[in-house]
UniProtKB/TrEMBL annotation:
This is Sugar ABC transporter permease. The keyword Cell membrane applies. Residues 69-283 form the ABC transmembrane type-1 domain. It comes from the Bacteria. The chain crosses the membrane at residues 12-34, 75-96, 108-129, 157-181, 202-224, 262-284. One of its GO terms (biological process) is transmembrane transport. It is a multi-pass membrane protein. Its main location: membrane. InterPro entries: MetI-like (IPR000515), MetI-like_sf (IPR035906). It comes from Paragemmobacter kunshanensis.
Length: 292
């Protein structure tokens, strides 16, 4: 018979975590929902007034919002598949037996981009891609290539954000998928490799079912990260040139902190949260249905 844990002990262990969740997560969310239902502009003398769903209607009918969502979706559809492909390739290589020292060194080096904050990555990119003094253009000059305006050209700036996002988060994908590969029973892998020399068949029918939880986790986290991507493009390009790198989080910052329309910015943030939750549920239902 299992002894029942005293209620006071349960409260003592769970209480601080629940309180922190309420203070850090739930309370700001409820406050944002409340503000999204009000007209609240810091530059206006009038007090906040309830407007119902007007802010949401204004957001959903605003072409600027959908353009920012389109840029964010484009970033996601380009960078995340590349991250998954490169991360899976790195994970498979590191999962193979042998070269222990090389694998340890590679794992340590993969941590460096993940440990670098978004803002630092953006500043690093801004310095390295400078048209006159950047190290990238200096290296291109060695091969006779003229200096490229990475930051000042809309297309180049967008591509630069994609490349830097891939550089920063491919190691994260690789490490998560490597952890997923470590859950495959060795005897099953060995038996499969004896039956076929095709690494693709081993991956498809033996390793992939064990990778599904890792893939779902990566997709959910990378979707949320892409939708809230702000620090790196803001420090790198300030959302420019023009609106070339004004992703949805950069747009929300501009509306809230530079136009001071807190109600409208809150509605944009809540819509972005709803999209993230919807996509997370979609990933879970699709991938686990494929496994079943």
């Amino acid at each position: 018979m299992t002894a029942q844990v005293p209620r006071k002990t349960v409260i003592a262990f769970l209480g601080p975590a629940v309180a922190a969740l309420l203070i850090v997560g739930i309370a700001p969310l409820l406050y944002a929902v409340w503000k999204s239902l009000h007209y609240f502009n810091l530059t206006k003398q009038a007090q906040s007034r309830f407007v119902g769903l007007d802010n949401y209607i204004n957001v959903l009918t605003d072409i600027t919002f959908w353009q920012a969502m389109g840029r964010t979706a484009t970033l996601f559809l380009i960078s995340v598949p590349i991250q998954l492909a490169l991360g899976l390739l790195i994970a498979i290589v590191l999962h193979r037996p042998g070269l222990t020292f090389f694998k340890t060194l590679t794992r340590l080096s993969l941590v460096l981009p993940m440990a670098t904050t978004y803002a630092v990555v953006g500043l690093l990119a801004q310095v390295m891609l400078n048209q006159k003094y950047g190290v990238v253009n200096q290296m291109l000059g060695w091969f006779g290539v003229d200096a490229i305006n990475f930051i000042g050209d809309p297309t180049n700036a967008f591509i630069a954000v994609i490349i830097w996002d891939i550089w920063q988060w491919t190691p994260f994908v690789a490490l998560v998928l490597l952890a997923g590969l470590s859950t495959v029973p060795p005897e099953i892998e060995e038996a499969a490799q004896l039956e076929t020399k095709s690494q693709w068949l081993v991956l498809r029918y033996v390793q992939l079912p064990f990778l599904i939880p890792s893939l779902v986790a990566v997709l959910i986290l990378r979707t949320a990260d892409t939708l809230k991507l702000f620090d790196m493009p803001f420090t790198m390009t300030r959302g420019g040139p023009g609106a070339a790198t004004e992703f949805i989080a950069v747009l929300i910052e501009r509306v809230g902190n530079r136009q001071f329309d807190i109600g409208l910015a809150s509605a944009q943030a809540i819509i972005m949260l709803a999209i993230t939750i919807f996509l997370a549920r979609l990933y879970i239902r699709f991938f686990y249905r494929e496994v079943n």
